[in-house]
Amino acid sequence: MDAKENADNWQCREHALDFIQRPLVMGVINVTPDSFSDGGQYDDPVRAVDHALALVDQGADLLDIGGESTRPGAQEVSEEQEVHRVLPVVRELVRQTSKPISVDTRKVAVARVVLDAGAAIINDVEASRQDDAMWQLVAQTGAGYVAMHMQGQPQTMQRDPSYGDVLQEVDTFFSQRLEQINQAGVKNQQVVLDVGIGFGKTLEHNLVLLKSLERFGHFRRPLLLGVSRKSMFGSLLGVKEPAKRMPAGLACALWAMDRGVKVIRTHDVAETVQALDMWEVLKALPSS
Fold first, then answer.
1. CB-neighbour burial class of residue 72 (10 A; exposed 0-12, middle 13-18, buried 19+)
2. Which of 3.40.50.410, 3.40.50.720, 3.20.20.20, 3.40.50.150 is the CATH number of 21-284?
3. Active site residue: 85, 230, 245, 262, which one?
4. Which residues of the chain have pLDDT under 70?
């Protein structure tokens, strides 16, 4: 399989995902009491599972479960607490749906437990790690892996993010991480890249990255974009309540789709699916 073919596939254990049609939609389920967007709504496993299955009904192609808030300034939780939050949800979703289950975690111990329970993807906001234990686990299990760029840690990342050239630094990060990930035994087909909007970036950095998403196509790996309900919409558009930022998120999803992004991570699944599908209809219309 050549590099171009690799870019059209994402191997996540037994799930071979392709991007022949519109981008895949990843539905977000936060099982935390302190998420910036929906903190506390789904911290009960039964409610979380019901919500996740509702997202599947709305058209989610995969589900992303998070047991630790990574909003700016969020406090780290223990491995035990994170497992306690996510494991019952993962187990039940693996039983009730065939959709790939992703877990948003920075912790190798948590990743190991959820992969043992049937999760297919690890969404790692700390792909900046130096230790390769997470990558070795991904290699051993064949899991899909989201490598996200973040400057700093969630507790400190927004204090004073600074770059000489944000595009070049993110590009270099991806190049270095892909090399390290490969050295740990992970195949390129397992990896998706995420520029990390809002993770150690100012509003200006975010906009520069959004403007230039095509730049990262030379890696021949799919891009994931997560901007749903982000605080940058509050700064840019004056929309203070996260739940009211959906239109801005949809605009970014369509922008990203038109620039080759292959996975859209969102809280607003039904609306995102409808917008992406309509965009595809319009693109397919014959020229007058």
1. middle
2. 3.20.20.20
3. 230
4. 1-6, 34-43, 72-74, 154-158
